[in-house]
Design goal:
Layout: E1 3-10, H1 14-25, E2 30-33, H2 40-45, H3 47-64, H4 80-104, E3 108-110, E4 114-118, E5 121-124, E6 127-136, E7 140-142, E8 155-156, H5 158-162, E9 170-174, H6 178-189, E10 193-198, H7 209-221, E11 225-228, E12 232-236, E13 239-242, E14 247-249, E15 252-255, E16 259-261, E17 271-272, H8 283-295, E18 306-308, E19 313-318, E20 330-335, H9 340-344, E21 351-357, E22 360-368, H10 371-383, H11 388-392, H12 402-408
Parallel strand pairs: 1-2, 1-6, 2-3, 6-17, 8-15, 9-10, 9-15, 10-11
Antiparallel strand pairs: 4-5, 5-6, 7-16, 12-13, 13-14, 18-19, 19-22, 20-21, 21-22
The chain binds flavin-adenine dinucleotide.
Length: about 400
């Protein structure tokens, strides 16, 4: 005996639950399997918990300089265990909302590990489920480094660090992608001495080079130490030996060098979406892939925005300056300090850089408060190939950071 569904999904992260909700909305019967918690890495151990803690960190940082704005607190302090408690509450609240949405959509959720036997058959807890279409959305897990395997006490991954209830005096972060940079900012804001080690030539190696250089300056101003073009060779107790001969001491190490897909073997005819596909490991990419798969709505894989959170935010989309040949493009750069709103907010650090080819924007790289929102405006313009003159016709509200985009359009 077996149960029968139109769609069977393994994994309830953004890829899986988006596919489930959209398939159900299209009138299909859906079964989804989750071996851990609904919401996957993004909701439980990734985007949401990190950004919740980051918000507390940024608030604390901002309050330290609130006196400049005429705001006084008698004694400014924090309790990290309470910050983690608040993070857990936020995650639980959102998870409950998602569980309710799945229930209302009549998605059958089975809380157990599942195995795909063939493109139409899923096995879970000894039961067989026959599905017209099967979607594998099993996500990814943190990569470790040889010789620096996670012991979850001294050598941590991004899951371990989310559950720390006390902060160490200092930490070494290996890797300066989004996860490494966000944690460096969180911990530095709370007074932890942070050192980042990056094997590539620059911090945030996937960003436009000019943006990476500016982030290095921001790191310096936030007193975050960093070493580029070096790797960690080995550790001995709290001693860390770098490839250039330097020795450091650290109470904890966070390894943030990327994630590997959770997959054994690929089965022909099944659909693989989200982090398990090993392409772009971002929640919004997973969501777009799910919608494309279920509803057939296409999207442009080369226009997936990247955002690194913190204050100021860092965001980019499209081509970077190093992707373009000299002379084939025009560029405008505008300092965020030129915008009235940045002074109102006391957040003047940053730049808006726009790259244009044949009168159309092909890339944008932004460091600014609200960069995550600004980048979306540019993504719409690039995707719809809107000419610069047409964009100049649009009215942008004042005072806003968006005006920075508008003003940039007159700098070509
Ligand atoms: C610290 C951190 C911060 C991040 N911040 C951001 C961010 O700000 N923005 C962003 O876009 N992305 C961010 N990401 C990346 C984002 O979390 C992932 O891209 C996203 O979660 C991928 O979604 P997914 O559905 O493919 O997989 P996942 O979210 O990994 O979900 C997969 C699910 O499948 C389940 N599963 C696996 N195998 C089985 C099985 N055999 N049976 C049943 N269930 C199974 C797992 O338990 C898991 O719940 C962050 C990641 C981390 C680690």
């Amino acid at each position: 005996m077996f149960e029968q569904y139109d769609v069977g999904i393994i994994g309830a992260g953004p890829a899986g639950y988006t596919a489930a909700l959209h398939a159900a909305a299209c009138g299909l019967t859906v079964v989804m399997f989750e071996k851990d918690m609904i919401g996957g890495v993004c909701l439980n151990r990734g985007c949401i918990p990190t950004k919740t803690i980051l918000h507390s960190a940024e608030l604390f940082k901002e309050m330290k300089s609130a006196q400049e704005l005429g705001i006084y607190t008698e004694k400014l302090d924090y309790d990290f265990s309470k910050i983690i408690e608040h993070k857990n509450k936020t995650v639980n609240k959102l998870r409950k909302g998602l569980e309710l949405a799945l229930k209302n959509a009549k998605v059958k959720v089975v809380n157990t590990e599942a195995e795909l036997l063939d493109k139409n058959t899923i096995k879970a807890d000894g039961a067989i489920y026959k599905c017209v279409k099967t979607i594998v959305a099993t996500g990814s897990e943190a990569k470790s480094l040889k010789g620096l395997e996670f012991d979850h006490k001294f050598i941590l991954n991004s899951d371990d660090i989310l559950n720390m209830t006390e902060l160490p005096e200092n930490i070494l972060i290996i890797g300066s992608g989004a996860i490494g940079v966000e944690w460096a900012r969180i911990l530095a804001a709370f007074g932890v001495e942070v050192t980042v080690v990056e094997a590539a030539e620059r911090i945030l190696p996937l960003a436009d080079t000019e943006i990476s250089k500016r982030i290095e300056r921001i790191f310096k101003s936030e007193k975050i130490n960093f070493y580029t073009s070096v790797t960690v060779e080995k550790t001995h107790g709290e001693k860390i030996y770098l490839s250039d001969g330097k020795e450091l001491l650290a109470k904890k190490i966070l390894v943030a060098v990327g994630r590997k897909p959770c997959i054994n073997k690929k089965i022909d005819g099944a659909i693989y979406i989200g982090d398990v596909g090993g392409e772009i490991q971002l929640a919004h990419f997973a969501i777009k892939q799910a919608i494309a798969e279920v509803r057939g709505i296409p999207f442009n894989k080369s226009l997936v925005p990247s955002v690194v959170y913190g204050c100021p935010e860092i965001a980019w989309v499209g081509l970077r300056e190093q992707d373009l040949e000299d002379g084939s493009y025009q560029k405008s750069t505008l300092l965020v300090s030129a915008l009235g709103k940045s002074h109102c907010d006391n957040c003047t650090d940053g730049i808006i850089k726009i790259l244009v080819q044949d009168n159309k924007i092909v890339g944008a790289h932004i460091i600014s408060k609200e960069a995550s929102a600004l980048i979306q405006q540019i993504t719409m313009a690039i995707q719809n190939k809107i000419a610069v003159e047409k964009l100049r016709e649009i009215c942008f509200a004042h005072p806003t950071y968006s005006e920075g985009i508008f003003e940039s359009l007159f700098k070509f």
